[in-house]
Design a protein that fits this description.
By secondary structure, the protein is an alpha+beta fold. The chain has helices at residues 31-45, 74-84, 109-116, 120-128; strands at residues 12-16, 20-24, 50-56, 59-64, 94-102, 131-137, 144-147, 162-165, 169-173, 176-179, 190-193, 196-200, 223-232. It holds the Pfam family CT_C_D. One of its GO terms (molecular function) is hydrolase activity. Keywords: ATP-binding, Hydrolase, Nucleotide-binding.
Length: 233
């Protein structure tokens, strides 16, 4: 279950708007495929006719300077570059995050336990047994989409979003897990989400800080290890 990710038999590149090309990689989500996406992103980022690149889950969006190139030729060129791009190793950092599973801020744990026919303790320890890799930038600065969720815990995202508290929530959605940033002073107390909250990290660091170098706490290829602090009813 790779919700939101297209599983293609062959890669494809398509025009997006008037100045970008989206490359969708072949096959399911995998670390080797994502490493190729990172490598191609690094290569394209250095080109003078490229304004920006945005790696995604199993895809890469390349934004071009249309004044300096023929965009009609860009999809085929990007496909050719993809086919020639090898897997590139990236040695990232590792961050350990203590998590309180269940409880008031892991309010969806009982539903997940019922759905998977597991106890909350089994879910917590299975979730924490994996190592999660930051695959792509997330919807907010600092944290990203995490790959590594055990297949036993794959859970469909909600069809209708619900309101959940902000502040270090650990969630599951589809084949992915997520770690939310801390609640910001004067920021919203809740936010809409289709993910399932199974716990929270009480001391999660600030994911993005312009006074820090680099500003992002985590980059693509970095890893998160969740540690079970306790499981609450």
């Amino acid at each position: 279950m790779n919700e939101g990710v297209i599983n293609l038999a062959a890669p494809r590149a398509t025009l997006c708007g008037t100045g970008a090309v989206l490359l969708d990689a072949e096959g399911p989500l995998s670390l080797d495929t994502q490493r190729r996406i990172w490598a191609l992103a690094d290569e394209m980022r250095d080109r003078e006719d490229v304004i920006d690149v945005q790696p995604g889950m199993n895809n890469l969006l390349v934004m071009y300077d249309i004044a300096s190139m023929d965009l009609e030729q860009a999809p085929q060129e990007l496909l050719a570059r993809w086919n020639a791009t090898p897997v590139k190793q990236r040695e990232g950092r590792t961050m350990e995050v203590p998590v309180i599973y269940g409880g008031e801020l892991g309010m969806d744990m009982p539903d997940l336990a019922s759905f998977h026919k597991m106890t909350p303790e089994e879910i917590a320890h299975l979730h924490a047994a994996s190592e999660y890799v930051v695959f792509a930038p997330g919807t907010g600065p600092g944290f990203g989409y995490l790959f590594g969720l055990p297949p036993r815990l794959f859970t469909p995202r909600r069809k209708t979003p619900v309101m959940r508290p902000t502040g270090g929530l650990v969630s599951i959605g589809g084949a992915q897990s997520n770690l939310g940033g801390p609640r910001q002073e004067n920021g919203p107390a809740t936010h809409p989400t289709g993910w399932h909250a199974i716990g929270h990290a009480p001391n999660v660091p600030v994911p993005f800080d312009l006074s820090r170098e680099p500003p992002n706490l985590l980059d693509m290829g970095d890893r998160i290890i969740f540690r079970v602090e306790r499981v609450e009813a």
